[in-house]
């Protein structure tokens, strides 16, 4: 838009960086990207042979991304960083779990908070052990008792920690519950999870296409600061989110394609930290789990589980 309105001069542009190029296609920005590249290409003709360097970063390489490279890059160099992980497109720092739940959206809502509480408690314990090995002084930052008493019903775990966290500061609250991003397919689903009484012990806010830019910025700033625990988002709203300390990603149903799973699960396990990706599915969606495993290849397998139980806590 700025190029078309001549508000942005591209003649002196030395480099153009397009991040998450594959997601731009899925979100309907393909034509915008191509117009921008064409505008920069025209400006290059006026610069006496000097050319703008074009860098494309993409977690996946669908045909559209490859075609962009062929059209707008000369002598392009392709760098595949997945060779460092044995060719896997998903981060090795992420634990991938698929939990089978009873059919119907209400069944997922009923156990969503328990799943988050159980999975976060695992990550907190693991993270604390790593931090203690690297820096002993950090081992005492979390108090005892956040995992609940033996035989305690799983749906009481989050409630107990909530009572404890009211006596502590925001840092301790964040340390206990961490940060979770829950992905939904629609804006309506996101709003229903946040306002429908699903979260009784955790605090949550929604982020989707109907959220204005000012509110979006405020929501993300509050999430980064630990003011609430769960960000419920759609794919469109989550684009460009870079929050390093996300502990858990929950996908309420299998995505439409494996590339979307790669992007969603990649919101955790960043900057060398460990994270967990949980995918919820019912028996009718079992084939989707197999398809994702086959598509990602390189021995990728989900850790298949049932809904959380008292023993899991």
From TrEMBL:
Helicase ATP-binding domain ranges (all copies): 1-79
Chain ranges passing through the membrane: none
SUPFAM superfamilies from the UniProt entry: P-loop containing nucleoside triphosphate hydrolases (SSF52540)
Top-rank taxon, per record: Eukaryota
InterPro entries named among the record's database cross-references: DEAD/DEAH_box_helicase_dom, DEAD_box_RNA_helicase, Helicase_ATP-bd, Helicase_C-like, P-loop_NTPase, RNA-helicase_DEAD-box_CS
GO CC terms in record: cytosol
A GO molecular function held by the record: RNA helicase activity
Keywords: ATP-binding, Helicase, Hydrolase, Nucleotide-binding
Pfam family name, one: DEAD
Domain Helicase C-terminal: 153-313
Similarity comment text for this entry: Belongs to the DEAD box helicase family.
Name under which the protein is recorded: RNA helicase
Organism of provenance: Pseudictyota dubia
């Amino acid at each position: 838009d700025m190029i078309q309105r001549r508000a942005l001069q591209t003649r002196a542009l030395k480099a153009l960086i397009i991040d998450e190029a594959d997601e731009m296609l899925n979100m309907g920005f393909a034509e915008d990207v191509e117009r921008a590249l064409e505008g920069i290409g025209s400006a290059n003709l006026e610069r006496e042979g000097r050319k703008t360097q074009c860098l494309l970063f993409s977690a996946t390489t669908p045909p559209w991304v490859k075609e962009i490279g062929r059209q707008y890059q000369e002598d392009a160099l392709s760098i595949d960083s997945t060779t460092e992980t044995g060719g896997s497109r998903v981060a090795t720092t992420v634990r991938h779990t698929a939990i089978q739940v009873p059919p119907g959206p209400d069944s997922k809502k009923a156990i969503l908070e328990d799943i988050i509480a159980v999975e976060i408690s695992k990550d907190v314990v693991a993270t604390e052990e790593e931090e203690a090995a690297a820096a002993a002084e950090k081992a005492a930052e979390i108090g005892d008792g956040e995992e609940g008493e033996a035989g305690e019903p799983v749906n009481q775990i989050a409630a107990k920690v909530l009572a404890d966290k009211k006596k502590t500061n925001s840092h301790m609250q964040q340390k206990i519950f961490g940060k979770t991003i829950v992905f939904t397919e629609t804006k309506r689903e996101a709003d229903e999870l946040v306002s429908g009484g699903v979260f009784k012990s955790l605090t949550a806010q929604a982020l989707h296409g109907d959220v204005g830019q000012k509110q979006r910025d405020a929501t993300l700033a509050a999430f980064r600061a630990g003011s609430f625990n769960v960000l419920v988002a759609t794919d469109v709203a989550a684009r460009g989110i870079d929050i390093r300390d996300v502990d858990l990603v929950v996908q309420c149903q299998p995505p439409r394609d494996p590339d979307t799973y790669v992007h969603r699960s990649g919101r955790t396990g960043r900057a060398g930290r460990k994270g967990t990706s949980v995918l919820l599915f019912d028996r009718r969606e079992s084939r989707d789990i197999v398809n994702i495993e086959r598509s990602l290849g390189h021995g990728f397998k989900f850790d298949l589980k049932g809904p959380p139980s008292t023993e899991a806590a």
